[in-house]
Amino acid sequence: MKKFLFLLWAVATAALLADSFFQHFTSEKSTFVSDASAGLSNEYKEIEYLDCSGGKFAADDGDSLYCDGNSVRIVGIDTPETMRPEYGIATNQPYGAKANAFVLKTLRAAGKITVVYRKGDLDRYGRLLGHVLVDGHLLAPMVIRQGLAYEMITRFGDQGFPEYAAEIMQAWNEIDKPLPFENPHDWRVQNINRVVDCSGSNYKSDDGDSLFCSGEEFRLNGLDTPEIIHVKDKIWHDQKLGRVAAAKGHEIMLKAKKAYVIVTGTDKYGRTLGWLFVDGELYASMMIKLGLAYETVTHYPSPRYPEFDKEVLEAAKVAPLQGFIPPYLFRRCEQKGDCVREALMDRVPMEVVIPAI
């Protein structure tokens, strides 16, 4: 009898514990679903979530971020651009840095960050299209209320999140307009440049300040390296350190994992003008710091790219003394016979010319 009563007590206790555990689990799960799916239309069921809490994020600019290894484009807003040369954005749009700073500050102060998105919903750059919830609150309206974003619902619709879209539009209708910066879409149309990929074997170096890439001949902005023989240009001698600069430029490109040119125009010889970036660094600054180039932005500034000009000038301040005269003086001597003594001294004797790489 005692064994029977003990067995009965054990079964009842186990049942009570199981019921308690079930109530606790379903309560927790219900709370999570309620937080993460608040405002979602019942029409869309394939909703997925990314947890970005605990520092698993990085703000790219005001309307995009990286979350746990995923690139996310925040739906419903468009913030002013920040400089990203790899995408052809060569300068900051006004208020771009401020928008980025606000989003970063908001994310850092959050206890819980969740990205809500529809499965397989990507933009043309492969980024997830999603909404960001910061401690249960939608981030996009916060950015709008700071006067740091245009709404994008009118242009792209609710994209499967009608209640979130309504919240964004409510914030947009509440703020004073016009905003103090141009619509980022219009700004991009005017300011984004063509970018040419010169990575891997997709290039051929000429001298230190020009190269062939993707079927185009480029004259690189910001620098002037010593000359090497170009008969078609009436350069009959190598200039001192000309071959060294050409070889160094070739070495830099050969080691590069990523190289691209931001196109800016065409010079009088029909060559494409552009800023070369090698693994994120400005090539002109690299060569100037090595003492293998003179800067050219003092005489040929780039009004649309003040950040690049500034970087080149900073490089020139710390560069060692060049062991050659300014190449334009050498060219004048070669092409026109107008030679200063230093230009004649910079000529490399023909018998010691090293073949171009």
Automatic annotation (TrEMBL):
Leader sequence segment: 1-18
In terms of SMART domains, this protein maps to: SNc
Which molecular-function annotations from GO does this UniProt entry contain? Answer: endonuclease activity; hydrolase activity
Q: Which InterPro entries match?
A: SNase_OB-fold_sf, Staphylococal_nuclease_OB-fold
Signal as a keyword of this entry, yes or no, is yes
Keyword DNA repair part of the UniProt annotation? no
Q: Which SUPFAM superfamilies does the UniProt entry name for this protein?
A: Staphylococcal nuclease (SSF50199)
Q: Where is the TNase-like domain?
A: 61-149
Mind listing the UniProt keywords for this protein, alphabetically? Endonuclease, Hydrolase, Nuclease, Signal
Top-rank taxon: Bacteria
The protein's name is TNase-like domain-containing protein
